[in-house]
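Box 4.2: Ligand-aware structure prediction
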Amino acid sequence: MKKNKLTKSDLIHFLQCEDQKELDKLFNRAYQEKMENVGKKVYFRGIIEFSNICSKDCFYCGIRQSNQKMTRFRMTEDEILECAEFAWKMGYGSLVLQSGERTDREFIEFVEKIVRQIKKISNDELGITLSLGEQSKETFQKWFDAGAHRYLLRIETSNSRLYSTLHPPDHDFQYRFQCLEHLRNVGYQVGTGVMIGLPGQTAEMLAEDIIFFKKHDIDMIGMGPYIPHPDTPLASKVKKFDKKKQLTLGLKMIALTRLYLQDVNIASTTALQALHPEGREFGLKAGANIIMPNITHTKYRDNYKLYDGKPCLNENAKMCRVCLEGRIGNIGEEIGYNLWGDSPHFQKKQKK
Ligand code: SAH
Ligand code: SF4
């Protein structure tokens, strides 16, 4: 493999490769690339999943509006601020606010207020990433003005045909894509990503996803394996779910994205850990450099199940940090405490 010169057919080749020796070489090469571009510091983004109320109906997601088996919750302002304060005191540097998608005025104002409050209680120190789905450009601007500086909106797949098999007809691929442009124009660091191993998804489509990230100058990537949730329509399309294969495909995507984009931030997501207890460490070894510890109140975690087998449902946030320190130390990496940890890709653009 020539350095940094992966072609689309190379990407497809590795996505299809089953030779463990060749794959180990790929993961090592991606790890090297990570060392050269972003170093061995792992940055934390404490994630607060503050509500599972959602107005959308994505076919794969456990908290979709039509899933009546799900008990709905929303955390109060005080509860969210308590979690944010915890993240700040623990030196996490940065947090993510995530929830189901809502575009009503009450929600927009609630988020705006929360963002302002978090900035205030943390002396402006905590970085804030939002992951609240598709919104109008005005709403993105309002939340940016309140103090949020990163936004994570997965495109889910860059293939519009596949997208339409995963969503009801009124979920518009073009608008989701346009949101990424709005976010960039407003001034956010833009994160996107895809689900990996979806029914109907081919190696070529995954290769095109990686090319999409590069073409659209994405600063941070959050992607993870698709995991069926039994109370969703998409789960019925999965004949036999092969955890190991799905995990390996997720790791290949991380490694290839590191090699193809080099200096971006890549998250080692919880879905990897749902497939293997050490899934997130494998992700770091394959080229990822971000971990998102869950700091949601334990009492709500059971109801934020986007997919089956979500780990750490009973582990409180303190235990989570101790556990992560051990895991990260074990693989010879360090934690970047009290830092925002912007990607070198984004920093380079700022200097231009
Ligand atoms: N509502 C917001 C944020 C919450 S959902 C949004 O949709 O953008 C966050 C992510 O969870 C989604 O982007 C999707 O990629 C992922 N997700 C949902 N269901 C999943 C499943 N069954 N397996 C893996 N990831 C899933
Ligand atoms: Fe709602 Fe996001 Fe789940 Fe879609 S993926 S149903 S928008 S929470």
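In the box above, the bound molecule is S-adenosyl-L-homocysteine. The first strand starts at residue 41 and ends at 44.
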